[in-house]
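[recover] target loaded
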């Protein structure tokens, strides 16, 4: 399609502060994007710039490794990896930098949905295809090539459907059920989708009540801190739903410290998302009852799209990765085959 560039740089790391639940704060940029070398050109490689959200969870680490293992020089790629450090402003700045370098493709995993119109238009004017991965944006879909990732709303719906089925089998269908939800980063499409799916399905059960729904920012530390605050106010929790595994792990520490029992043999039903390796371990011990899979292995679909574009083929605007629902009953059957 257009000229191929190769940059001797494989990784660019951006350091910045974290985006808090209240939104992105004003940030003064004291440092430029770090580089380890100069620029060279070679038509034999396709240069792909990948802008990651950060390193907020084990899921994110697995997602990053997948890109690094997929877009290799052996396969004809030069990967420029950028750590957004949980700061949307840093991501926008990084995208400006990639456009100025004239990379062949940009893969963007946006921290939040809003604020991308101008930079996406600039990439489009520069004839650089942009693939959105994992999280989405609120911008006009005509400004980017496609979106690839998980159906977050369906994930939320599936979690509540499992809960309803479980309670019915336990003879608790008519009981009053009190729920707590630990939400992810405010404005992130994963948070928006899962929360919408959860609330939509929960509202179908008139005897269920949400006691609290608080932001834990997808991190283990904040999951623990938020759960500690919730436990100070609420003693009658029947169900804890965490919008990722790491927040659940933190919440479990908080419950243990407060002598609140949870899991298969406890008082609190535990439901989470991501299906990480540690989640499988905790399901097999009965601490975690369900983890709805959010598949981090997205890079293969991104590469497929790039190959389609290179071949002049049409690309589907929305593409979902395959995902499942794992429970304490079936986790042992799948644990040895997990790649993350």
């Amino acid at each position: 399609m257009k000229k191929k560039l190769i940059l001797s740089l494989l990784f660019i790391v951006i350091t910045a502060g974290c985006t808090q639940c209240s939104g992105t704060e004003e940030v003064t940029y004291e440092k430029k994007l770090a580089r380890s070398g100069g620029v060279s050109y070679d038509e034999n490689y396709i240069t792909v710039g990948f802008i990651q959200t950060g390193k907020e969870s084990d899921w994110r680490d697995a997602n990053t490794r997948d890109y690094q293992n997929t877009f290799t020089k052996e396969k004809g790629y030069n990967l420029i990896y950028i750590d957004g450090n949980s700061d949307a402003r840093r991501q926008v700045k990084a995208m400006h930098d990639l456009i100025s370098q004239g990379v062949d493709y940009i893969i963007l995993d946006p921290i939040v949905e809003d604020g991308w119109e101008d930079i996406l238009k600039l990439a489009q004017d520069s004839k650089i295809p942009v693939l959105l991965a994992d999280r989405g944006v609120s911008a006009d879909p005509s400004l980017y090539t496609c979106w690839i990732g998980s159906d977050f709303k369906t994930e939320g719906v599936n979690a509540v459907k499992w809960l309803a089925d479980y309670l019915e089998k336990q003879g608790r269908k008519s009981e009053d059920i009190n729920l707590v939800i630990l939400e992810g980063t405010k404005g992130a499409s994963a948070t928006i989708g899962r929360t919408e799916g959860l609330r939509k399905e929960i509202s179908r059960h008139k005897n269920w009540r949400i006691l609290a729904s608080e932001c834990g920012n997808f991190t283990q530390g904040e999951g623990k801190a938020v759960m500690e605050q919730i436990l100070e106010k609420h003693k009658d929790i029947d169900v804890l739903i965490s919008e990722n595994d790491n927040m659940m792990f933190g919440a479990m520490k908080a419950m243990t410290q407060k002598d609140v029992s949870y899991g298969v043999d406890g008082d609190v039903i535990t439901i989470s998302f991501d299906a990480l390796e540690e989640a499988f371990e905790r399901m097999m011990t009965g601490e975690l009852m369900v983890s709805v899979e959010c598949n981090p292995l997205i890079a293969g679909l991104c590469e497929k799209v790039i190959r389609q574009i290179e071949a002049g083929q049409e690309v589907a605007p929305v593409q979902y990765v395959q995902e499942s629902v794992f429970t304490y009953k079936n986790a042992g059957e799948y644990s040895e085959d997990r790649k993350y």
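[recover] notes: The chain has ten helices and 15 strands.
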